[in-house]
Amino acid sequence: MSSTPLITDSHCHFDFEALDPVRDQAMQRARDLGIGLIIVPGVGAESWPRVAEVCDRYTECYPAFGLHPYFIEQHREQDLQTLEHWLKEKRPIAVGECGLDFFLKDLDPDRQMHFFLAQLELAQQFDLPVIIHARKSTEQVIQCLKKFPGMRGMVHSYSGSFEQAEQLMKLGFYFSFGGAMTYERASRLRKVIARIPLQHLLLETDAPDQPGSRHQGEVNEPAYIDEVIEKMAALLNIDQVKLIEQTTINARQLFGLN
Questions:
Q1: pLDDT recorded at residue 258
Q2: Strand order in 201-203's β-sheet?
Q3: DSSP 3-state helix, strand, coil percentages of the chain (rounded to 5)?
Q4: Residue 43 neighbours by CB distance under 10 Å
Q5: Residue 204 contacts residue 12 (beta carbons within 8 Å)
Q6: Which contacts (CB < 8 Å, 24+ apart) does range 162-171 have?
Q7: Which residues pair with 100 in a beta bridge?
């Protein structure tokens, strides 16, 4: 794909420890594939320095800072003040990863909602897009977003219905998809993807998690996005180059990157 437009991995935890032994090699494989832009979202206050370090080290990487609902019990009220400081001083491209996870029953929903709304307020304050995690919570996420007119962002690894996607598109949101769609069992997800306009789609790996079917059981990495590109282009019945080009345009528009 070296002659194609630069590929964007719109959601990749390139700072995670699972990639420590192979990070330089993984970045070289990403470059060899033609990846020119990687969005690296933070998941908790302790992760933000690692995110910043990785993004300083690799010019392809751009940081976002947020408080992930999966780690809700680790987050402290003071982290919101610290986040405000990081947004002001570091000027990331987004607030995130934030959101709601009602799939895992031991994650306090009220506490999740508190931290999610607080982060939406910060995103509005700093005029930044949000990177949202929504698992079994798409409807609740939509209702939260409606409280913040003009909010923009992406729902990563989208798993809601097409009808919910329509509501999110009206709010100015994009949807990223990764390895999950490459499995044959993902028929419902594929039907949703096929109906979303290309102007609202993004590519992602969510590395080191959610590898595609060819790399099941492996540590995921950005270069494995090639399988996502192949499957999504076939699903949409479009050329891979067109898919790469438009999804990169979408990412640049959303995150304000030239």
A1: 76
A2: 7-9, 35-41, 61-65, 94-101, 130-135, 153-156, 173-177, 201-203
A3: 50, 15, 35
A4: 24
A5: yes
A6: 162/191, 162/192, 162/195, 162/196, 164/138, 164/139, 165/192, 165/195, 165/196, 165/200, 167/142, 168/142, 169/196, 169/197, 169/200, 171/142, 171/145, 171/146
A7: 134
Helix (H, G, I), strand (E, B) or coil at 164: helix
**Cα of 143 vs its chain's centroid, Å:** 20
Phi, psi of 158, deg, nearest 5 = -60, 135
How many CA atoms lie within 13 Å of 170's alpha carbon, on the beta-carbon side?
A: 9
Q: Which two tokens stand for residue 256?
A: 């304000």
User: Which tens digits make up the pLDDT trace of 36-81?
Assistant: 999 999 999 999 999 999 999 999 999 999 999 999 999 999 999 9
Q: Is the pLDDT of residue 34 over 70?
A: yes
Nearest one of 131, 124, 163, 125 to 146, comparing CA atoms:
124
Q: What angle do helix axes 162-170 and 187-195 make, rounded to 10 degrees?
A: 30
Q: Which two tokens stand for residue 212?
A: 């595609």
